[in-house]
Fold this protein.
Amino acid sequence: MQASLELFASKGIQIPISQIAEKSGVSKGLLYNYFDSKLDLLKEILLTKVTEIFSFFDPNNDGVLTRDEFIYFIDEIFRTTVNNIDSWRLYFIIVVQKEAHEILNKELEKLMPAFMRILINYFKTEGRKDPEAEAMFLISTLDGAIMDIVLNPEYFNADKLKKRIIETFIN
């Protein structure tokens, strides 16, 4: 999957499966043993990253986000980004490609309603005037911060950004 991530990012999604197999050091047949198609492989790569982020959210899976769990979520997003900056850079290069974006959106349609419901309820319990707007603002803020850290780490200090985001959404 790492070889595929690198190739999709550098050569685009239209790269032949034979090149992916060659770079991975496996046969095309073996790739097709694990993935039905090249797009299935791409979907798995995209879902691995998304699933990683979602795994930090509501860690006890009780459907309720506490303040400590909220802070943990933000901490873990920043930790995994900083510790895997090259992988995330490749992910962002891929996800802006039309086919990848469409695949990701279909998967997010399944995951986002429960995520948003829990996040909106969290902001309700925190007494926010417009909890839905707060949830959207948080997601947009995190998307931008992570992209800036990944693409311009020399200008964006992850620790300062994380601290500021937590201060903004906790107070």
In short: The chain has a mean pLDDT of 91. The two ends are 41 Å apart (CA to CA).
